[in-house]
Amino acid sequence: MRSKSAVKFISVIIIAAVIAYIAFFGIKAGNYSISPVQDNIRLGLDLRGGVYVLMQAEGNVTSDAMSRAIAIIRNRVDSLGVTQPLIVKQGSNRIRIELPGINNPDQAIKFLGQTAQLKFVGPDGKVILTGADVKDSKAIYETDQTGVQQPVVTLVLNDKGTKAFADATQKFLGQPIKIMLDDKVISSPNVRDVITNGNAVINGMQNFDEAKNLANLIRAGSLPVTLKQVEYSSVGATLGPSALKASEEAGLYGVILVMLFMIAFYRLPGVIADISLGIYILINFILFALLHVTLDLPGIAGMLLSIGIAADASILVFERMKEELRAGKSIRASLDYGFKKGFVTVFDSNINTLIAAFVLFFMGAGTVKGFALTLIIGVIASMFTAMTVSRFLLKTLVEMNLTDNKKAYGA
Amino acid sequence: MKWNLDVIGKTKIWFAISGIIILAGLIAMFTVGFNWGLDFTGGTVMEFNIGKPFQTSEITNILISHGVKDSQVKAIGSEKKQVSIATKSLDDKTRAEIVNDIKSKFNLNDKDYLSSQNVGPSIGQEMKFGTVLALLVASALMLIYIGFRFNFEMGIAAIMALVHDILIMLSTYALLRIVVNTPFVAAILTVFGYSITDTVVIFDRIRDNLRIMRKASYAEIANVSINKTMTRSINTIMTVLIMLVLMYFFGPASIKEFALPLTIGVISGGYSSIFIATPLWVIFKNKEIKNRAGNKAAKA
Fold this sequence. Notes:
Protein name (chain A): Protein translocase subunit SecD
Distance between the termini of chain B: 50 Å
Number of helices of chain A: 11
Strand order of the largest sheet of chain A: 5-6-4-14
Domain SecDF P1 head subdomain (chain A): 126-225
Strand content of chain B: 5-15%
Radius of gyration of chain B: 25 Å
Shape of chain B: elongated
Order of helices and strands of chain B: HEHEHEEHEHHEHHH
Strand order of the largest sheet of chain B: 3-4-2-5
Structural class of chain A: alpha+beta
Strand content of chain A: 15-25%
Low-confidence stretches of chain A: none
Structural class of chain B: alpha+beta
Subcellular location (chain A): Cell membrane
Oligomer: heterodimer
Number of strands of chain A: 15
Mean pLDDT of chain A: 83
Low-confidence stretches of chain B: none
Membrane topology (chain A): Multi-pass membrane protein
Family (chain A): Belongs to the SecD/SecF family. SecD subfamily.
Helix content of chain A: 55-70%
């Protein structure tokens, strides 16, 4: 019994250590490789530096107009050459843009916010028509002579555009006309017919998505949604990483102190609490990586705070245990009772924290969401480790019969 | 450690302590008001690393040359070699021009442009409304949960303790002039969650003791429950405080301003669970007895 328990105890610690090693240093075996968790956790702009802009469309906008606006912005961001940009719709009329590692934030923002310029340019470099002349553009499937369905982009022009386009197609028959957005060529179809009715078709698309994207861009140029910047923030390339380093230090010292406190106060169970606290932190990081959590400063604060909450789960159980030990019960009976009673309390109290965190997550804005998410993950992970890992380790420890001295259990 | 405090017997003292702090806070709120930050008022804040001592007037002059009159220019950092500039909300063009002028005047490169932030005034209004709504929704849900798992009096007492903590937090922000920004919302809601956890632990023990101590008065049951959970209350506040205090001393500037009110909130949350929520529950319970007795007397 004793040696069996010792084996169990040591195996759990070895397994945890191996997982910790893989999580922090990664592993490579043949074709399989796991990269370290820190490479998989997306850092917020406040920790790595960059620009964040919230744009709002003026007046009444349809969701179609919004997706066209987003297409334009994505196109522009791509031309800036930003790695890992984030462009998402927020609410019904806002677009949130995150650009990490931008050196000149003001220029980037100016570029993103300006009204899109759509131009059709002839081989002679002259502008044939602008976005203002395009009435509509759609992506559709067209059946060609061989009966194959092909994605194409249709163009409907206004009167002025129809005339200009008729002249141009006659002049440049067989030559390409460039379609440019913000001075970047997005397509350059060859003119195959003279188009006099103002209805043109652009073919040669790879797939329907490409056609849809081009139609979006053309329509966006013809129907500019006026975007106004309502919120903006930039963090310099030096400030972000130094904030990350400072938080890491604070976290490390904090965890060490909490661990020492637990050992000083609860002796052997304190050691167990520390091991499960370590496992808890590990689970937290793995979940962050798996759930693609963006870790920003408030998120780190939420996580550090949840370490205190995780310790509380152990404290609740140990205090109950101590009471039973003092009342004269055996170590084993006290342990069972402590976990049984402690769990009800941990459950009831954590559910309330979860309620607050979920409300925060669904109703809070921006950075508050990050904080709420790390708190939710933290609370759930702490309930899990307290009730499984701590319990298992403490039980096997008691079964090992290292000592009968109740003082070693904090009593 | 064995505790033997008569918490319930001194209810008036605890209520008075909290009352005085909240009163002072309310006076501050209605006279000087809050130190509303950018997130709520709207405006532009820029930070530069000048790298050498400078006169704030040098920067104010640049701002005035671009027609920006009302501005707050502050030297920050431990050696006062950095500057924080707060103005009304600037458009992209003006901001870019000002940034260029400051860069060329002090010979700065891109790395010295530490951060900048611009928030439109409409965002703040949405946030104020959103926060109040979030608090109300969370309270209602907690009340339902506690009412379901415990009982209604405990739910009301717990929620009143929460209101107490929020008032203490608001007082802290008003009295210490801490900037009210987005982290404020997170801080309030964290304390909200933390405080209820703490209260539930004591109420959980009262629920146990109500079964065990059938003959005892509510005040006795409350006192015993508080004393039995006292070591836990202190230790859990200690572990959270260890994390918060280190966040305050070692954390980056933006976490610092968040750690201080959280520290006060956590202490308040722990305090209110023992000294506000539990006495309130006793008062509610005793009133119930009185009412019942009163009803009986009226019938007779």
